[in-house]
Structure formats: structure tokens, C-alpha cells
Amino acid sequence: MPDPFTIIMAVTTAVSGITKAAAARSAGKAQEDELQRQAEQERIAAEGRELQRREELNKALAARQMALAASGLAGEGTPQSIALSAAEKISLGEGMETLSSELKRAQLKRAGKNARITGNIQAASTLLDTGAKAASLS
User: Fold this and answer.
1) What is the distance between the alpha carbons of residues 47 and 55, in angstroms, rounded to a whole number?
2) Smaller CB count within 10 Å for the chain: N or C?
3) CA dist., res. 107 & res. 41, Å (int)
4) Measured distance CA(88)–CA(47) in Å, rounded
5) Residues 74-85: pLDDT tens digits?
6) Do 19 and 121 touch, CB atoms closer than 8 A?
7) For the whole model, what pTM was predicted?
């Protein structure tokens, strides 16, 4: 029968290891939650930027149309093709902004999953180390 000191040390080591493992797991989960929150904030911000860009585009196109109408030019031919070209360029810029935002959100989500996995691996490693230390005390 092992002496009481060895039993106390083994129990203390086990409790300490379990606590460290739980902390590592919780830290990974907390980091994942934070990165998910950041991804959601990025989505909301991207929607706001998209709305603002569309409003600016509509204002610019309306101003151009008013200028054409005031000058007596018809909305056909070269002025119309210039307006169409400008709208296409703006649309392309919007598409790039949307893609960039989606990539950033996906990166944040992946980083969150990786943080959770890392926390779980650290917890498992801590438990294995604790088991080995407790066994060596016996």
C-alpha cells in the first residue's frame, strides 16, 4: 500500500492537470467565440459599406443623368455608353470589395476553429502528462 504522502501528491497532480486541461479547452473555445464575433461584425460592416457604395453610385448616376438632360443631350449614344462604362467599373469595384470581405470572414472563422482545436489538443496533452506524472508517483 502506498504511503499517504504519495496518494496526496498523486491526487494533487491529477486535480492540477484536470484544471489546466479545462483551462486550455476553455481558452480555445473563448478564442473561437471571439473570432466568430469578429466575423459577424465584419459581415455587418460589409453590408453597411455595400449600402453606402450603392447610394453613392445612385447619386452619381442621377447627377450625370440630370446633367445630360439639362444640356439637352439625349440619353443615347456616347454619353450613355460613358455612363454604362462608369457603372460597370463601379460594379467591378463592389465585387472585389465583397470578395475581400468574404475572404476575411472565412479566415476569421477558420482561425476560430483552429483555436478551438488547439485548445483541445493542449487539454489532451495536459491530461496525458498529468497521467504520466501521477503514475510515476505510485
Assistant:
1) 12
2) N
3) 13
4) 20
5) 555 566 666 667
6) no
7) 0.66
SS (H, E, C) the chain: CCCHHHHHHHHHHHHHHHHHHHHHHHHHHHHHHHHHHHHHHHHHHHHHHHHHHHHHHHHHHHHHHHHHHHHCCCCCCHHHHHHHHHHHHHHHHHHHHHHHHHHHHHHHHHHHHHHHHHHHHHHHHHHHHHHHHHHHHC
Q: What angle do CA 68, 73, 78 make, to 5 degrees?
A: 85
Cβ contacts of 55 within 8 Å, gap of 6 or more: none
Angle at 11 between CA 10 and CA 13, to 5 degrees: 65
Q: Which of 35, 43, 40, 37 is nearest to 115 (CA)?
A: 35
Q: Which residue has the cell 473563448?
A: 30
Query: Which residues neighbour 62 within 8 Å (Cβ) at sequence distance 6 or greater?
Result: none
R_g of the chain computed on alpha carbons: 30
